[in-house]
Amino acid sequence: MTAMPYPRPVAQAAPMLGSPQGGESGAGPQGFWPDRRGWLILALYAAGFAMAHRLAALWGGSGFYSLWFPAAGVRLALLWRLGPRITPMVALVEILVDVGLGHVTLTRASAVTTLWGIARPVLAYGLTVAAIRWLAGTRRAGLFTAPMPLGLAAVLAPLAAALCAVPQALFNPELTGVANGREIIVSLAAFTVGDLLGTLFVAPPLLWIADALGGPRRWPGPLPTVAACVETAGVLVLGLALVELLAAGGLGIQPAPVLVAVAWIGLRRGRAAVWTALLVVVLIVLPATAGAMDTPARLQQHLALATVVVTGYLAGSFADAQAAARASLERRDRLLFQAERLKTLRAMSVAVIHELSQPLSTLAIEARHLRRRTEEMPGDIADSAALIDRQADRLTTLIRRLRRFGGHADANLQPVALATLMETVAQLAKAEAREAGVILTVPPVDPAWRVMAQEVELAQAVMNLMRNAIAAARETDHPVVIMTATRQGAWGAITVVNATGSRPAGKDGMGIGTFIARAIMEAHGGTLTRVRQADGMVVATLSLPLVQD
């Protein structure tokens, strides 16, 4: 039997290339033409593609494509990581590799057909990736919740590449010698199985490694417990043992027990666990099918293996997607609960304001009147009257601010950039700091750090701390207030630092500003800490969970 009309048919004793498949797209580069780093990545891809292509020759048959094609997984990982925009460049790299290593022979009569045969599967993968990314971006169905898009692309891209080869097989059979329907079906099956095993088994670990090198994430999910490892191993061993028992009973190689086992592991433990289980299965099957082996027998075993791998990986992806969806719902519920707490806090503040405003208004009027009547009196009477007037005025100002806070009706939490928030507060506090003779310092902040909050309330909380800091710093030999932002894991923190005098911070006022700030932070699901250090510096820190993009 001869090969299907795909470039680089695999001969047992010759270097091979299964079939050029594509991968998925990720958040890739915005431009089409790569920069210097892009060219380096493409050069590394060319080397990896060539090595994976040679490795696949061990599972090739006479006139057949390799029944395990790891180069497809390398391609998938690259396209998923960098995006579908680089699909033409990937196709160009594969053309250069195939021609340069002699995998294909270009003649004047067949050059166009041969080059198109190399590029066609890559383009099919790129289009599949782009379509899946678009569907995932529209969020029209829960099926496209991450990480399901990667699993779907790893399955659908090889199928799309195989289907794109059908017209050439039907209308140009002279290119490959495949002349009847049965040979076409068998060759398409071999083509697809080899690519599926490559995309599903090689791409995921490459992407996990790339994620680990590019960020703090080290494992696709929570680390497994001992009980989870024991359960996974027990289920897998049971499935493999049942396969051996069925084979010993004369029923042949039956994949159903292992298929059920990996489906169980995937649905229970997610992608990482099921991929580890699939690694054991693949390490058992692939060495047994490498080298000299009857092609139909190899195809039968690899079809069973592909069924197990597809089922297991999609089950694990589905489980991880469901876990991500549940986490998103829980976060939404927490935000709704926090919004309700803010509503309650406003209602309480309105009630308190209403009860305090009338007697305080009367007190302020009487205090002002008392001060005017005692201005000409000598001694402590005038000073005491002036102090009463000042404190009454401070209370009136505080009630006015509380009225603005309690009267704000927008209860929707929105992403708020810490940089923007700090800039707003700094502008508001600048006048007070200048009047008090205090230097206000605000270093630059990463604009990508965002929190879910009501901007007015959060700005009020930070402003309360700034007023306390300015009031404390003005009485010291170091009148400086520093407002900074830092990232602490999944949390963002705004820190206000100031020097203070011999009196403990907060003794100049009633402490209501700090109380309100703490209430606002707790209603947002955050925290407020205030620490007086040994050197006399006061550090107030507002912490909130960052928005995870």
Describe this structure in words.
With 549 residues, this protein is α+β, with helices and mostly antiparallel strands. 63% of the residues lie in helices and 8% in strands. The protein has 14 helices and 7 strands. The protein has helices at residues 36-55, 70-82, 87-100, 111-138, 148-171, 181-214, 226-248, 256-269, 271-289, 295-374, 380-407, 418-436, 455-473, 512-523; strands at 414-417, 439-441, 450-453, 480-488, 491-499, 527-532, 537-545. Mean pLDDT is 78; it is low at 1-31 and 505-510.
- What does the overall shape look like? elongated
Poorly predicted regions: 1-31, 505-510
Indicate the radius of gyration in whole angstroms.
Answer: 34 Å
Question: In DSSP terms, counting alpha (H) and pi (I) runs of 4 or more, how many helices?
Answer: 14
Number of strands: 7
Q: How far is the first residue's CA from the last residue's CA?
A: 51 Å
Topology:
Elements: H1 36-55, H2 70-82, H3 87-100, H4 111-138, H5 148-171, H6 181-214, H7 226-248, H8 256-269, H9 271-289, H10 295-374, H11 380-407, E1 414-417, H12 418-436, E2 439-441, E3 450-453, H13 455-473, E4 480-488, E5 491-499, H14 512-523, E6 527-532, E7 537-545
Parallel strand pairs: 2-4
Antiparallel strand pairs: 1-3, 4-5, 5-7, 6-7
